[in-house]
Amino acid sequence: MIIETRRLSKNYGPVTAVKDLCLRVPAGKISAFLGPNGHGKSTTIKMLLGMVRPTDGSGDVLGYNITNPKESIEIRRRTAFVSEDKQLYGYMTVKQILAFTRALFPQWRAERERELVTAFDLPLNRVVKGLSKGMRTKLALILALARGADLLILDEPSEGLDPVATESMLQAVVRAAEEGATVFFSSHQLSETERIADHVFILKRGQVVVEGELDELRERYRRMNAVFVGTPPLDRLPLATFENAETDRHTLSALTKGDVDAIASEIRAAGALSVEFHPVNLRELFLQSVKE
């Protein structure tokens, strides 16, 4: 595991941002870290990088302890991070900041830099503070993807990008993983996430509520619709296998997990006239998982 946390928690006074978080992020994979705004994603990332100290719990990144100041320096040395606010040296030109960053990293991939500058159509002589939000995102991505880092942590990497640039970004992220990097990224763009992610973590109020390989999650979860003669008898149904069950007159709709044949048998035994199961995509799984 490239990232592993044990009951990681962070409180800001009376507010709990992250609670008893247990992450196990596999090496060499593209892992998506999903959740609504304000539910602890950015706080978690900052704790992993040693930028914020946990209130409780522990964790390791690349084998280094996140609460040890010296070891957290090694984490940041081997990790390329694109933050949500995309902070850069505003007084430099694009060309200057590329040259400055290139000199700091012996594993810098000059060819990847040239490819991405061309793909993103970046104006090399423009001052960074004069760049649009999308252009700053492109520049931050180049600085991360060309580093040759062991771990890429990307917070909203497609923010401000047009569809063409987004496609280039997705291809570059997949290529980085194919070359051996581990990618851990946060995003609200679920369609993009579903295209490239191998592993998914869904966060709700600072805790992981869904986790697993994306293909395995598609197999585990189903949308169930069951029709009864009268009102669905919720007291006789296997509610432990449901999430966000909803009733509408004679119909019960729910997100189910587990053996669909076993669930169907229990539903029919409770009086259902018909039971149907349908595949769910990542968007539906996410919305149902974080629903209050």
What is the tally of helical segments? 10
Q: Give the strand order of the largest sheet, numbering strands 1, 2, ... along the chain.
A: 7-8-9-4-10-11
Termini gap: 31 Å
Backbone CA Rg: 22 Å
Total count of strands: 15
Largest sheet: 6 strands, mixed
What's the pLDDT, averaged over the residues? Answer: 87
Q: Bin the helical content.
A: 25-40%
From the helix content, strand content and strand pairing, which structural class follows? alpha/beta
Stretches with pLDDT under 50, minimum 5 residues: none
Q: Strand fraction band?
A: 25-35%
**Order of H and E elements:** EEEEHEEHEHHHEHEHEEHEEEHEH
Rough outline: elongated
In short:
By secondary structure, this protein is an alpha/beta fold. It is built from ten helices and 15 strands.
Description:
The chain is an alpha/beta fold. Helices cover about 35% and strands about 30% of the residues. It has ten helices and 15 strands. It has helices spanning about 40-50, 70-80, 95-100, 110-120, 135-145, 165-180, 190-195, 215-220, 260-270, 280-290; strands at about 5-10, 15-20, 25, 30-35, 55-60, 65, 80, 150-155, 180-185, 200-205, 205-215, 220-230, 240-250, 250-255, 270-280. The strands form three sheets. A six-stranded mixed beta sheet has the order 7-8-9-4-10-11, sandwiched between helices. Strands 1, 2, 3, 5 and 6 form a five-stranded antiparallel beta sheet that branches. It has a four-stranded antiparallel beta sheet with strand order 13-14-12-15, sandwiched between helices. Helix 4 (about 110-120) packs antiparallel against helix 5 (about 135-145). It is elongated, with a radius of gyration of 22 Å. The two termini are about 30 Å apart. About 35% of the residues are buried. The model has no long low-confidence stretch (mean pLDDT about 85).
